[in-house]
Write a structure and sequence with these properties.
There is one protein chain. The chain starts with 20 loop residues before the first helix and ends with a helix. About 10% of the residues are buried. The chain has 6 helices and 2 strands; from the N terminus they run H-H-H-E-E-H-H-H.
Length: about 140
Amino acid sequence: MRDRARMPSRRGARMPSRRGAGKLESEVLAALWAASGPLTTAEVQLAVDAELAYNTVQTILSRLYEKGLVGRSAEGRRHLYRPIKGAEELAAEQMQALLHRGPDRQSVLQRFATSLSEEDAEALRAMLKLRRRER
């Protein structure tokens, strides 16, 4: 058992806030979307949170690469990362996936549509009308 007298006190020390992997993935993607070109792990780290561990950022980038959400290319001993899909495309895919998971698509669509602001509902109506004309 460790002697409590030897352990440094954390009282009053500022603990870094913990974020879930999903939140970090979103923040990393946002940083890549905002960039004018591919970024290194260190550049992503600075864009997201300089206090975040480099290895944490590297792990998130590796997960996003494995999911097919970011591409990477070698530059010397380091990798450059870039988003594969735009924010809009990814959001639409996520909405489709959620819609397909539900047992009653009609009910999900109805709840979604009735929860839209009037402005968003009007934009959706206009897009659907345009889609009908294109058929």
